[in-house]
Amino acid sequence: MKLGTCAYSYRDLLTTGKMTLIELLDTVRDLGFDGIEWTAYYFPETTKEYLLNIKRETFVRGLDISATAVGGNFIQPTREEREKQIANVKSWIEKSAWMGSTALRVFAGYVTEGMTREDADQMVRDGLAECARLAEKEGVILALENHGGVTADAEGTLRLVKPLNNPWVKLNLDFGNFTGDIYAQYEACAPYAVTTHTKVTVRQGEAREKVDYRKVVRIMRKAGYRGYINIEFEEPEDPIAGVDRFAAYLRGCMEDA
């Protein structure tokens, strides 16, 4: 497994102008990461020329683009709104291909008022299936994240991906987004994961508990996972120091788990 970090970890610095994307790349390189997940929200422009330059700047620093990430919500009350969401994901499939990213993180969405869970699930499956046709053409795997809503637990998440039986629709397994028996849910999802997010803690009721990443590494290795462990840092502290400290812990877990 390799260790990376998400641009999202540095969101406050990026959105306030305290850090540029090039400065972020220097930071990621200097902290000894193998790669970076580029989050769509933080690009000041998304022209092909600009994104190819980011690809170049990433490469010359010895870093991989471990994944790209886009938001979205396939669960919409009208076809027109659903088509807009699908078009946005398709746009980022193309942009990901330009950048050489083999995985694009996507979201499913939330059940809205007056809609059944079955209808919502089908909208997600239909949206993923439509986007997967372009994803296959461009060589970009759609990585559905367990991100609340219809993906709040492993059962709901797998109910969206497994019926498609499509090698271009897999999971971004976020270890900070489940609750309850988190390790059993990680184990259920691990065989479908092509990329991951690591958060320091998970919410259990009103409290937050630390994730045991030695146990996580063992689960992922048992499933045959050899991809990226990407840090998605959300703690209320300076992300540069916090990410560095969390990375040291994760490296230790990967070495002796």
Annotate the secondary structure layout:
Blueprint: E1 2-6, H1 11-15, H2 21-30, E2 35-39, H3 48-60, E3 64-69, H4 79-99, E4 103-106, H5 117-138, E5 141-145, H6 154-161, E6 169-174, H7 182-189, E7 193-198, E8 201-204, E9 207-210, H8 213-222, E10 228-231, H9 239-256
Parallel strand pairs: 1-2, 1-10, 2-3, 3-4, 4-5, 5-6, 6-7, 7-10
Antiparallel strand pairs: 8-9
Helix pairs in contact: 4-5, 6-7, 8-9
Task: Please explain how this structure is put together.
With about 260 residues, the protein is α/β, with parallel strands linked by helices. The protein has a single domain (about 1-255), classed as Alpha-Beta Barrel (TIM Barrel), CATH 3.20.20. It is about 45% helix and about 20% strand. The chain is built from nine helices and ten strands. Strand 8 and strand 9 (about 205-210) form a beta hairpin. Helix 4 packs parallel to helix 5 (about 115-140), helix 6 (about 155-160) packs parallel to helix 7 (about 180-190) and helix 8 (about 215-220) crosses helix 9 (about 240-255). The chain is globular and about 50 Å long. The model has no long low-confidence stretch (mean pLDDT about 95).
Radius of gyration: 18 Å
| Individual helix count | 9
Instruction: Specify the CATH class.
Output: Alpha Beta
CATH topology: TIM Barrel
Low-pLDDT sequence parts: none
| N-to-C SSE string, H for helix and E for strand | EHHEHEHEHEHEHEEEHEH
Instruction: Characterize the largest beta sheet: strand count, sense, and whether it forms a barrel.
Output: 8 strands, parallel, barrel
Percentage of residues in helical conformation: 40-55%
Number of strands: 10
Name of the CATH homologous superfamily: Divalent-metal-dependent TIM barrel enzymes
Estimate what percentage of residues fall within beta strands. Answer: 15-25%
What is the name of the CATH architecture? Alpha-Beta Barrel
